[in-house]
Write a structure and sequence with these properties.
- By secondary structure, the chain is mainly alpha-helical.
- The chain folds into two domains: 2-135, Serine Threonine Protein Phosphatase 5, Tetratricopeptide repeat; 160-256, Alpha Horseshoe (Serine Threonine Protein Phosphatase 5, Tetratricopeptide repeat), CATH 1.25.40.
- Helix content is 69%, strand content 0%.
- It contains 13 helices and no strands.
- Helix 1 crosses helix 2 and helix 8 crosses helix 9 (175-187).
- The longest helix has 40 residues, at 2-41.
- It is elongated and about 80 Å long.
- InterPro entries: Sel1-like (IPR006597), Sel1_AlgK (IPR050767), TPR-like_helical_dom_sf (IPR011990).
- Keywords: Hydrolase.
Length: 265
C-alpha cells in the first residue's frame, strides 16, 4: 500500500512540475513581448526576427501570420538570412501575405546568395527552375569581339586555319581568342556546334575577368547549355559581369534578384 501511495505522490509531483514549467514558459513569452516589440520598433533586427517568430508560432501572443510577415520583412530588409528565407516561403504559400511567386523567388534567392543551405537546395527544385526559365529573356546567343566583326552577331566563314589560330592563341592565354572560340563553338561557325566546348572557352575568358564571357556563362548556367543547370552559379556570373559595369547583366540581375525594397516591380 505504501508503495502505491509513493507512486501516486511522485506522479502528482511530476504533473505539478510539468504544469508549472509550461505555465512559466507561457508567462515568460507574454512577459517579454513589450520589450521585444519596443526593440523591434527601434530597428533591432534580432528583435524583429524574434517578434516575427513569436507571432508566427503563437508564443506569448495569438498566432498572426500577417503580423509575422510584417516583422519578417523588416528583418529581411536588414539582411537577416533566415527571415529572408521564411518570408520567401510565406510568399510562396500565401501565408500571411498574398501569394506571389516573384516575391517568393526574390527572397529565397537573396537568402541563397548569403549561403542559406535550404534556400540553395530549394532553388534547384523543378518549380523554381521552370520559373527562372520563364523569366529569363531570350537571347540569340553570344556576340563576338570586335576583331571578328559581323553585324548579324555571328562569325561568318570561319576556316579551319582560323580556328586553329584561335586555339593556339587561346591556349597561350589570349582572353579575346578564348572568348571568340566560345562564340564559334556556341554558334557552330566553321565547326560543329558544341555547347560544352563553348562553355570551356567562355569559362577561361570569364576567369580572366572578361565581362562578356561572364555574362554568357550566366545564361549557359541558367539554361543548362554545356553545363548542368545551376541558378546559383548563373546569378554569380551575372553579378560578376554587372560588377564590371556590364549593362545587360545589370538588367538581368534587376529582374532576377531585385533589391529588397518592398513593392518594387
Amino acid at each position: 500500500m505504501e508503495y502505491v501511495i509513493a507512486i501516486v505522490v511522485l506522479a502528482l509531483i511530476a504533473a505539478g512540475i510539468w504544469y508549472l514549467t509550461h505555465r512559466a514558459q507561457g508567462g515568460d513569452d507574454e512577459h517579454i513581448i513589450p520589450g521585444v516589440t519596443k526593440a523591434a520598433q527601434s530597428g533591432d533586427v534580432f528583435a524583429q526576427y524574434k517578434l516575427a517568430s513569436m507571432y508566427y508560432e503563437g508564443k506569448g501572443v495569438p498566432p498572426n501570420s500577417a503580423e509575422a510577415a510584417k516583422w519578417y520583412l523588416k528583418a529581411a530588409q536588414q539582411g537577416h538570412v533566415e527571415a529572408q528565407f521564411i518570408l520567401g516561403i510565406m510568399y510562396e504559400r500565401g501565408d500571411g501575405v498574398d501569394r506571389n511567386d516573384d516575391q517568393a523567388y526574390q527572397w529565397i534567392s537573396t537568402a541563397a546568395q548569403q549561403g542559406h543551405p535550404r534556400a540553395r537546395s530549394l532553388l534547384e527544385s523543378d518549380k523554381w527552375l521552370l520559373y527562372l526559365d520563364a523569366k529569363t529573356p531570350e537571347k540569340n546567343g553570344p556576340e563576338e569581339k570586335a576583331d571578328v566583326p559581323d553585324a548579324g552577331g555571328h562569325i561568318s566563314e570561319v576556316t579551319s586555319e582560323q580556328v586553329e589560330e584561335y586555339i593556339r592563341k587561346a591556349e597561350d592565354g589570349d582572353v579575346d581568342a578564348q572568348y571568340n572560340l566560345g562564340v564559334i563553338y556556341y554558334h557552330g561557325e566553321g565547326v560543329p556546334r558544341d555547347f560544352e566546348k563553348a562553355y570551356i572557352w567562355f569559362r577561361k575568358a570569364a576567369e580572366q575577368d572578361d565581362a562578356d564571357a561572364q555574362y554568357n556563362l550566366g545564361f549557359m548556367y541558367g539554361r543548362g547549355e554545356g553545363v548542368q543547370k545551376d541558378h546559383t552559379q548563373s546569378l554569380q556570373w551575372f553579378k560578376r559581369a554587372a560588377d564590371q559595369g556590364h549593362s545587360a547583366a545589370k538588367a538581368i540581375l534587376e529582374k532576377m534578384t531585385r533589391s529588397t525594397v518592398p513593392g518594387r516591380k
